Amino acid sequence: MNSDSRAEAQARTDYAQPFLFEELDIRGRLVCLSSSWRGMIDGRPYPPSIVEMLGETTALAVLLGAGQKQGGKRITLQVRGDGQVPLLVADCTSELKIRGMAHHAAEPRGSARELIGAGRMMLALEDSDTGGIYQSIVPLEGETLTEIFGHYISQSEQLPAFLRLQADGESLYGLLLEKLPRADERDADGWNRISMLAATLSLADTRSARPYDLLTRVFPEELLRVYKLHPVEYHCPYDENKVKDMLRGLGRSEIESILTEKGEIVIRNEMCNHEYRFGAPIVAELFGDPV
Q1: Which of 24, 56, 102, 254 sits CB 3.0–4.6 Å from 165 for a disulfide?
Q2: Domain boundaries, the chain
């Protein structure tokens, strides 16, 4: 596949598209993922309900990541509860590189809120340039993840917001609209009209559709300005050297103690679904002398 073909495929599958209704003072972001989403859940036997919930969490993480004005940021979104799904986590960098995971009971049953139970949502924004981390922790308000996330966005942005999230094992999408302060002056019915049209969007509509074509199909009578399209990528590389650096930091005596007790060192990276195994020769490799 040449570069033009790859760009064409990217434009149809894994992207974040910011846009603006110019005559209405309403802004939005559209996220559609397929290959990057499948890469994230590949090798993880999640039941359909967990795939859907993790997909919606990932969609929101990308929507928020696409809203970052500067690079070097990482947004991590966590939903923690006391139910059959104690943890959903997805994160997205300002370069729109994603990863995520879920913890769940063997055979989860029930609605999203029943599966999560009582819990809280945490949003962390990490700035690699300054080393600073901003955290927001809020109780879960709503019955679905879309309601929970939508309530949080409306409160944090202090703007009326419309949020729609859908996911399955093949693809996901997220649509976020925000009503800017002068929207009612521009068109008193604009927000209601746009929200009603946005609610008609289905996951099937988004598959292999160019973002501009998709937006104009959903909002056929509106004047749209679309901004630069941002590609989204699943990024969770196998990094044995980083793990070895961590082991080196534990020290020789600790490593030898683990090997004596266990016979090998096994490190599981759940976020990336990687497993690292090391036998006795790792001591010589890390510390420079024979075992």
Answers
A1: 56
A2: 3-234, 240-287
Name the packing angle between helices 48-65 and 145-157 (round to 10°).
20
| Residue 111: burial class (beta carbons within 10 Å; 0-12, 13-18, 19+) | exposed
> Which one of 3.90.1150.10, 3.40.47.10, 3.90.1280.10, 2.40.70.10 gives the CATH number of domain 240-287?
3.90.1280.10
- For residue 73 the two structure tokens come to 């940021």
What are the 10-residue block averages of pLDDT along the chain, 291 residues in total?
47 87 95 96 95 97 89 92 96 95 93 93 88 88 92 85 96 96 93 97 93 95 94 91 90 90 89 89 82 47
Q: What is the pLDDT of residues 51-67, one digit of tens each?
A: 999 999 999 999 999 98
- Indicate the SS3 state at residue 212: helix
In angstroms, the CA 157 to CA 167 distance is: 24
Instruction: Identify whether the C-beta of residue 160 lies closer than 8 Å to the C-beta of residue 150.
Output: no
Tokens 């090798």: give the residue: 43
Query: Both ends of the chain: CA-CA distance in Å?
Result: 48
